[in-house]
Amino acid sequence: MIKEAISELESKGVVVERVYAGHFMTSLDMAGVSLSIMQMDDTRRRCLDIDTTAFAFPKKVESNSFVTGNKRVGQPEIEPCVPKNLAGKVSNIGVDISQENKSLMVSAIRSACEALINAESFLNDLDKSAGDNDCGSTLKTGSQGILDLLDSVLHMTPYAMFVSMATSIESSIGGASGALYGLLFTAAAAPLKDDCDESGWVRALGSAITAISKYGGAEPGDRTMLDPLHAAYTVLESASKEGESALKDAFGNAVKAAEDSAKTTANMKAKAGRASYVNQDLLTQPDPGATAVSLWMRAAYDVISGKK
After folding, report:
1. Handedness of CA 66, 70, 75, 76 (dihedral sign)
2. pLDDT, position 116
3. Element (H, E) at 276
4. Is 201 strand, coil or helix?
5. Per-residue pLDDT at 264
6. Contacts of 43 (CB under 8 A, 6+ apart)
7. Using CA atoms, how far apart are residues 120 and 93, in angstroms rounded to an integer?
8. Residue 122: phi, psi to the nearest 5?
9. Neighbours of 97 (CB within 10 A)
10. Which secondary-structure segment (H or E) carries 18?
11. Which whole-number Å values give the CA distances from 82 to 36, 171, 188, in the listed order?
């Protein structure tokens, strides 16, 4: 697999100077392969060569150990590849909504991001016992990335807005949070291409839950961000069967259900993610990922409902 990766990169003109390969730790409780690419310079090269006692950090491997016949070390560096502007390509795809509703939607997203930014220390504290103590900091970085693009999405369809946010999240934060929120926005976007009524938003939430469960390996009840998402969806799905009027009134109840579910995770046994490897006696606080969902959901709803 390493040979194929190097060959593919070199076929695109990338000079592969070093390769670090092996079994590393991951915050996602699932099997898979991760490939990270970094442009080298003297500072990074010097830092990588410094001795460390970190047991998982690998020794340097020159790429010509895997692919013979090409001299790589010492060759001039090339400019990194720049991702294409995906958001610009999809800005007009999907059904549209009024400019007034777009402004309301952007305001709700802004409020959700600000809520996560303000909760950085709180979420980090919740993450101490079961994670890296960085849940709040990670989501703050992702939220700041979304805030930076909000002014540019006012002309976009809801589908395009969600695709843009997925792209922003995936490029600004890593680890489980980046992967899962990237999935959330990408999966939620699909139903919004054809329907932006209340029923479309319910289907968007259901699509996001399905994607996170499928690729993240968790289920409702596993003490993860899925719990509040699923609690909200259950309320909305039930109301949708009673008609549009009942569904409109159900969004407030859905947010309350999400908040209650997030609090309940304090008493749940962790069955997925890093918390599942921690002594359960130490898990006395609500799950930080679930709590984050309840925070941004409440902040967004308060704007849409006119309470904020």
Report:
1. negative
2. 97
3. none
4. helix
5. 93
6. none
7. 34
8. -60, -45
9. 15
10. strand 18-19
11. 15, 12, 26
DSSP of 83-106:
PP-HHHHHTT-S----HHHHHHHH
* Sign of the dihedral through C-alpha 258, 181, 213, 271: negative
H or E element in which residue 147 lies: helix 135-149
Residues in the chain, how many?
308
CB-based contacts of 83-88 (< 8 A; 24+ apart in sequence): 83/167, 83/171, 86/163, 86/164, 86/167, 87/149, 87/152, 87/153, 87/156, 87/160, 87/163, 87/164, 87/167
Rounded to the nearest angstrom, the gap between the alpha carbon of residue 165 and the centroid of all alpha carbons in its chain is 10
Q: What angle do CA 233, 111, 88 make, to 5 degrees?
A: 85
For residue 216 the two structure tokens come to 């993240």
The answer to whether 116 and 288 have CB atoms below 8 angstroms apart is no
Contact between 207 and 187 under an 8 Å Cβ cutoff? The reply is yes
d(CA 17, CA 44): 12
* pTM, full prediction: 0.71
Per residue of the chain (308 residues), give pLDDT as tens.
788 888 888 888 888 888 877 666 555 444 567 788 889 888 988 888 887 776 666 655 444 444 433 333 333 333 333 334 444 556 788 899 999 999 999 999 999 999 999 999 999 998 887 667 788 999 999 999 999 999 889 889 999 999 999 989 988 887 778 889 999 999 999 999 999 999 999 999 999 999 999 888 888 888 899 999 999 999 999 998 887 777 878 999 999 999 999 999 988 786 676 666 666 666 678 999 999 999 999 999 999 998 77
Q: Do the Cβ atoms of 112 and 294 come closer than 8 Å? A: no
Tokens of 257: 């259900």
The type of residue at 304 is: I
Tokens for 187? Answer: 């999966």
Q: Cα 200 to the chain's mean position, in Å?
A: 21
- What type of residue is 233? Y
Q: Are 77 and 39 in contact (CB under 8 A)?
A: yes
